[in-house]
Amino acid sequence: xxxxxxxxxxxxxxxxxxxxxxxxxxxxxxxxxxxxxxxxxxxxxxxxxxxxxxxxxxxxxxxxxxxxxxxxxxxxxxxxxxxxxxxxxxxxxxxxxxxxxxxxxxxxxxxxxxxxxxxxxxxxxxxxxxxxxxxxxxxxxxxx
Length: 144
Known about the structure:
By secondary structure, this protein is an all-alpha fold.
């Protein structure tokens, strides 16, 4: 499979448009403001971390789908069922409490990781970009 320059341009444009996603766009001013406070070039480091994280996650998922011969329509149907179940959880206060209790360990692990990252300087902002790429991938993935 060969990709022309136009494919890379469309990929770049899709990446830019992914920032218009409702779960990303409101946070951009806050992230860029705090990054600029850390270092004048920190927004570039943050963007670099995001780009690398998206590229690695996308490549791994594409490889896994191909190598494991996963049927895309089956995967979409399973994802739709999971989203439907999560919607039902969001409509019930008792289910929300149970879900929060069941997933609190995962949230605590994420908070622990974030607390170890020092946001000052270029490397700190790069690391934040890497982590945000992992967190935001499910949200921007459909756009990409």
